[in-house]
Specification:
Blueprint: E1 8-12, H1 17-28, E2 33-37, H2 48-53, E3 61-64, E4 67-70, H3 72-83, H4 94-125, H5 131-147, H6 161-176, H7 185-198, H8 203-206, H9 208-222
Parallel strand pairs: 1-2
Antiparallel strand pairs: 1-3, 3-4
The structure holds glutathione.
Residues 16, 18, 40, 45, 57-60, 71-73, 108 line the site of glutathione.
Subunit structure: Homodimer.
Domain GST C-terminal: 93-213
Domain GST N-terminal: 6-87
């Protein structure tokens, strides 16, 4: 439950990986919440009301008793800092915390942008997929695969918020069938392990949005 005992508002859209990462954490921390469905494709992120919350017009956004925050990676850390029963999902130890940051920034600056660069021209503009964007996506997956050599989760041996961020992107790639994830064996094993670890937080239900995105992408592709 939030500090003032009011539910946290989350502006969310199911196909959006960063939205799902935050909702999964809200469920994992058992926080009372209201889901405010906000569809960017329908311009719901560009209303003057929404732009007051987030001038960058992205989802997810949270409103925690008047404290407004956007960017999923920032929200993930904030929620554990404020509401975590312990610091396991985002360790307070500076070095362990830095390892989580490293992978959150990897997700924010490399994995998600390359995911978007490959998929969105097809989904939103009906353009054919671009080979160069695929090479860049595979390159970032190679790095993720290397990070996962000899460790169970993306930031080390324990599940952290970095896994929440990365798994919602990887599951969307799987649903869109853009890359054969089994060709990245460490990612594949980690993916199965992480889904299992997140099962009790409603992973399957929350992550149905990945299938929605996957279907949309495949429909656009077959219409080309
Ligand atoms: N760095 C942001 C990225 C969020 C983001 O790009 N969200 C997409 C949906 S997946 C969005 O809202 N796009 C609409 C727009 O950019 O106008 C985060 O992690 O929250």
């Amino acid at each position: 439950m939030s500090e003032l005992n009011r539910p946290i508002d989350i502006y969310f859209f199911p196909p959006s990986p960063p939205s799902r990462a935050v909702l999964l954490l809200i469920r994992a921390l058992e926080l009372k919440h209201n889901i405010i469905t906000t569809n960017p494709a329908a311009g719901e992120n560009k209303t003057s009301k929404f732009l007051k919350l987030n001038p960058l017009h992205t989802i997810p956004v949270i409103n925690d008793n008047g404290f407004i925050l956007y960017d999923s990676h920032v929200i993930l850390k904030y929620l554990v800092d404020v509401y975590g029963q312990d610091d396991s999902l985002y360790p307070k130890d500076p070095k362990k915390g830095a390892m989580v940051n490293l992978k959150l920034y990897f997700s924010a600056c490399y994995l998600f942008p390359r995911f978007l660069e490959y998929h969105t021209p097809t989904v939103y503009l009906g353009h054919p997929p671009c080979d160069e964007a695929m090479d860049k996506l595979k390159d970032v997956l190679e790095h993720l695969n290397d990070f996962l050599e000899n460790q169970n989760f993306v930031a080390g041996h324990e599940l952290t918020v970095a896994d929440f961020s990365v798994v919602t992107i990887i599951s969307t790639i799987e649903a869109a069938e853009t890359v054969n994830l089994k060709a990245f064996p460490n990612i594949w094993v980690w993916f199965q392990r992480t889904k299992k670890a997140l099962e009790t937080f409603g992973y399957e239900q929350i992550n149905q949005g990945a299938q929605v995105f996957g279907k949309l992408y495949k429909n656009k592709l077959s219409a080309l």
